[in-house]
C-alpha cells in the first residue's frame, strides 16, 4: 500500500464561507462579513475600496453561507458516511472574542466549537483546525488598523491560549494562518488591511506579515507548552511557477515568483528571514520594525508540518508584453497551452501537484499536508435531483494519482489530503454559490435563495470508495 495506514483523508472548509450565523451566539463582526458579492468584491478584498460595515446596497454571502452553524450534526454525519478520517475547518475569531480585545471569551462560541469537535470525534474524524482563515475582528480593523499594528500579536496570542487550553484533548492538528501569502494579494480580505492614500503599501504589507509570522511562532510555542502532542502547521497558497520559455530570463522570473510565496514558509519552517528577502527589502527601501526577541522566537518555534492549497500551476515570462496577458485566478498567470482549464479559467495540472510536493519537501524536509484541492464547477441536478459530477471525479482522481506518485516514487512524506469545499460553500474569490466544489450539493443560489437541502452527488460514493481503499480504488 502506497499511503500510510493512518493517512488523513477528508475535506476542508472555512468558517466565513461555510458557517453562517454571522451574528448568532454573540458573534462579532469580521472583515470577511463586510465583503460583498458582485463587482465590488475584489476591490474590497484588495483594500482599495473601504467597506467598514455592511450596507443595504450589497449582498454579503458570509452572513448565512450554507448555515453549518445550524446544520453541523447533519453535515458531520454525511462526512462520516463518506468515511472521512479528517475534517478541516476554521474558527471564527469573533465567535470567541467578538471584538478581538474583549476581557473574557464568549462562552457560546467556545461551546459551539466544542460541540462540533465532539461530533467529529464521535465518528472517529480528526479535526484539523485553522486558527484564522482570513478573518479579523472589525473592531480591531477600526481601532488599531488590524495586522499593521503589533498589538495584534497580543490579541492573537490570547485567542490561541484560549482555544488551545479549551480543546487541548480534542484537536491535535492546527494551522496558524490560512494561505498566509495571500496577504500580499488580498490585504483586506486576508488580513483586514486598509490603505491610506499616499502610504507605502508594500511596507505596510510586509510589516503586517512580520507581525503574523511572530504571532505564528508564539502560537507554536503556546501549543507545545499546553500539550506537547499538538502539531502546528503553516499554510501556503501553493503552486509551482513554470517559465514561459527555456530562456534563462524566464527561468529566473519563475524562480523569483515562487520565492514571493516561499518567503513566509521559509521563516515559519526554517526560522529566519532568508537573504533574498533581506536584499529585496533593501531594493524596495522597506524597513521592517522588529523587537528584541523576535528573531530568537522565530528560530526556536518553527512549525511541525507544512500544509498548502493546490488548484493548478502558474506560468510567467520575463517579457512584460507577454506577461501582461494573464489568465484567471487571483494570482496572475499566463495561459499554459498544454493545460485544460476549468469553467472559471483555472488551469488543471495534476502533475504540477507532484512537482509542488517535491519542491516543498526538498526545501523544508518536514511532513506535508494537502489541505485544499478541488474543482470549482457548475452542478445542475437532473429531474430526479441527481448530480453527475464526472469532471470533479476525474479532477480529484488525477490529483490523487499525482500525490501517490510523489509518495511512492519520490519519497515525499505526506500526512493527508483534504479536498476543498467537501460540502458546497461560498466561493472566496467570487462570492458565488454556483462555483461548487463539494461531494454534497447545497440548494442555494448566488442571490442567497434556496432551501439549504443537502444532496449527495455522484462523487460522494466515489470518494467513499477511495477512502475505504486508502486510495487504491480510483475508478
UniProtKB/TrEMBL annotation:
Transmembrane segments: none annotated. Keywords: Glycosidase, Hydrolase. PROSITE patterns: GLYCOSYL_HYDROL_F1_1 (PS00572), GLYCOSYL_HYDROL_F1_2 (PS00653). The keyword Hydrolase applies. Pfam families: Glyco_hydro_1. The active site is at residue 372. Belongs to the glycosyl hydrolase 1 family. This is 6-phospho-beta-glucosidase. It comes from Bacillus changyiensis. The lineage of its organism: Bacteria, Bacillati, Bacillota, Bacilli, Bacillales.
Amino acid at each position: 500500500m502506497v499511503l500510510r495506514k493512518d493517512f488523513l483523508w477528508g475535506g476542508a472548509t472555512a468558517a466565513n464561507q461555510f458557517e453562517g450565523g454571522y451574528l448568532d451566539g454573540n458573534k462579532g463582526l469580521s472583515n470577511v462579513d463586510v465583503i460583498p458579492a458582485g463587482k465590488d468584491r475584489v476591490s474590497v478584498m484588495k483594500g482599495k475600496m473601504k467597506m467598514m460595515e455592511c450596507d443595504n446596497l450589497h449582498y454579503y454571502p458570509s452572513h448565512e453561507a450554507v448555515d453549518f452553524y445550524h446544520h453541523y450534526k447533519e453535515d458531520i454525519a454525511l462526512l462520516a458516511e463518506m468515511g472521512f478520517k479528517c475534517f478541516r475547518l476554521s474558527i471564527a475569531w469573533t465567535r470567541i472574542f467578538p471584538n478581538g480585545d474583549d476581557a473574557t471569551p464568549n462562552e457560546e462560541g467556545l461551546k459551539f466549537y466544542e460541540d462540533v469537535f465532539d461530533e467529529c470525534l464521535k465518528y472517529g474524524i480528526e479535526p484539523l483546525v485553522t486558527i484564522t482563515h482570513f478573518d479579523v475582528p472589525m473592531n480591531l480593523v477600526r481601532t488599531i488598523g488590524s495586522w499593521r499594528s503589533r498589538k495584534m500579536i497580543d490579541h492573537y496570542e490570547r485567542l490561541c491560549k484560549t482555544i488551545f487550553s479549551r480543546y487541548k484533548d480534542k484537536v491535535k492538528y492546527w494551522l496558524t494562518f490560512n494561505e498566509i501569502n495571500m496577504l500580499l494579494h488580498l490585504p483586506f480580505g486576508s488580513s483586514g488591511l486598509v490603505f491610506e492614500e499616499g502610504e507605502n503599501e508594500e511596507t505596510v504589507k510586509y510589516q503586517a506579515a512580520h507581525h503574523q509570522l511572530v504571532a505564528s511562532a508564539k502560537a507554536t510555542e503556546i501549543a507545545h507548552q499546553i500539550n506537547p502532542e499538538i502539531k502546528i502547521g503553516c499554510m501556503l497558497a501553493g503552486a509551482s511557477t513554470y517559465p514561459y520559455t527555456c530562456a534563462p530570463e524566464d527561468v529566473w522570473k519563475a524562480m523569483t515568483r515562487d520565492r514571493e510565496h516561499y518567503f513566509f514558509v521559509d521563516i515559519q519552517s526554517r526560522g529566519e528571514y532568508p537573504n533574498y528577502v533581506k536584499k529585496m527589502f533593501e531594493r524596495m527601501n522597506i524597513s521592517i520594525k522588529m523587537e528584541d526577541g523576535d528573531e530568537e522566537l522565530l528560530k526556536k518555534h518553527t512549525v511541525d508540518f507544512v500544509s498548502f492549497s493546490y488548484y493548478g500551476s502558474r506560468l510567467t515570462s520575463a517579457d512584460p508584453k507577454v506577461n501582461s496577458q494573464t489568465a484567471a485566478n487571483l494570482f496572475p498567470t499566463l495561459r499554459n497551452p498544454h493545460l485544460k482549464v476549468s469553467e472559471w479559467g483555472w488551469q488543471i495540472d495534476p502533475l504540477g501537484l507532484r512537482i509542488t510536493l517535491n519542491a516543498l519537501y526538498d526545501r523544508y524536509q518536514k511532513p506535508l499536508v494537502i489541505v485544499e484541492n478541488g474543482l470549482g464547477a457548475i452542478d445542475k441536478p437532473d429531474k430526479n435531483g441527481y448530480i453527475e459530477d464526472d469532471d470533479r471525479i476525474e479532477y480529484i482522481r488525477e490529483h490523487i494519482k499525482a500525490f501517490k506518485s510523489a509518495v511512492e516514487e519520490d519519497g515525499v512524506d505526506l500526512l493527508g489530503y483534504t479536498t476543498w469545499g467537501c460540502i458546497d460553500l461560498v466561493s472566496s474569490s467570487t462570492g458565488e454559490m454556483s462555483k461548487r466544489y463539494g461531494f454534497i450539493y447545497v440548494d442555494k443560489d448566488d442571490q442567497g435563495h434556496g432551501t439549504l437541502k443537502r444532496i449527495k452527488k455522484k462523487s460522494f460514493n466515489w470518494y467513499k470508495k477511495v477512502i475505504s481503499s486508502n486510495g487504491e480504488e480510483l475508478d
